[in-house]
Design a protein that fits this description.
The protein has 2 domains: 146 residues, HAD superfamily/HAD-like (Rossmann fold, 3-Layer(aba) Sandwich); 119 residues, Hypothetical Protein, Haloacid Dehalogenase-like Hydrolase, Chain: A, domain 2 (2-Layer Sandwich), CATH 3.30.1240.10. Helix content is 36%, strand content 22%. It starts with a strand and ends with a helix.
Length: 279
């Protein structure tokens, strides 16, 4: 039976230094050659994904579900309105929080992101196991990928979601009150150790995007398998028929999984694909 596989990206398909393990690429290539479909399902925008050196795929879900693409065809794209973006931009700037706008055309940041981003991303890298040198290199590469904008140039109408640095976990809680109609998440850490908050369109989740794609493909949810490493991936697990947590994943994702594979850099994807007889 041919399967439809959904892969989170960071910590699942690639490691936290944005490197694609050779075994993971081999697993995806062999599975697709065997007739299975493989999509990434990520919080990243298309612009960010295009900066990664990934293997061939059947399509992508980006922006935590705001964007759905199948073999180059845009199935759905539901971003934030310009008014919503303006509200978030002004709110973050008033609180002196670094942020970046995630659009398919690029990643656009404010002044505070240039100041706060490197230190925050070093914490992210070290928290995922990188040494200081590796974390610093990855942080600089990430921040250098931003397009710096100021003033009203940040009020855009092509934004999928917005990530902002948390000065404390309270910023995330306050964002939920300030933007009750938007989807609010955290990433980069666990629980109150989260490093970033993000805000996206209401009703947009990885689960919803998979439903949209399955409807487009006229496919059955019973043929789906999802892979993830973090809390944000739980919405995939709510829908898909079988769910795999990476060995490097958090406690919540492991507790929700049907199977726990090895770490991303310990052939985790390849081992799971073999176990599931996708290859």
């Amino acid at each position: 039976m041919r399967k439809i596989v959904f892969l989170d990206v960071d910590g699942t398909l690639i490691d936290y230094d944005a490197k694609l393990p050779e075994s993971a690429a081999r697993a995806v290539n062999e599975a697709r050659a065997n007739g299975h479909k493989v999509y990434i399902c990520t919080g990243c925008s298309k612009a960010e994904i295009e900066q990664r050196n990934l293997c061939d795929l059947d399509g992508m879900i980006g922006g935590n579900g705001a964007y759905v693409e199948d073999n180059g065809h845009v199935v759905m794209h539901q971003g934030l309105t310009r008014d919503e973006v303006k509200h978030i931009v002004d709110w973050c700037n008033e609180r002196h929080l670094g942020f970046y706008l995630e659009a398919n055309s690029g990643m656009y940041c404010n002044d505070y992101m240039l100041e706060q981003g490197p230190e925050t991303m070093i914490k992210y890298g070290q928290g995922k196991g990188a040494d200081l040198t590796q974390a610093t290199q990855s942080a600089n590469s990430f921040v250098n990928s931003f397009i710096h904008l100021t003033g009203e140039d940040l009020y855009r109408d092509d934004v999928n979601k917005i990530s902002f640095i948390l000065s404390s976990y309270q910023d995330h809680l306050d964002s939920k009150k300030e933007f009750p109609t938007l989807e609010a998440n955290t990433w980069g850490g666990k629980g109150e150790l989260a490093l970033f908050g993000d805000l996206g369109p209401t009703g947009i989740t990885k689960k919803h995007a998979i439903e949209v794609l399955l409807n487009y493909l006229d496919a059955d949810v019973k043929d789906t398998i999802s892979f993830g490493d973090a809390k944000i991936d739980l919405s995939m697990f709510e829908l898909c028929a079988y769910n795999v947590a990476m060995g490097n994943g958090g406690v919540e994702i492991k507790e929700a999984a049907d199977y726990i594979t090895t770490d991303v850099n310990d052939d985790g994807l390849y081992n799971a694909f073999k176990y599931l007889k996708l290859i």
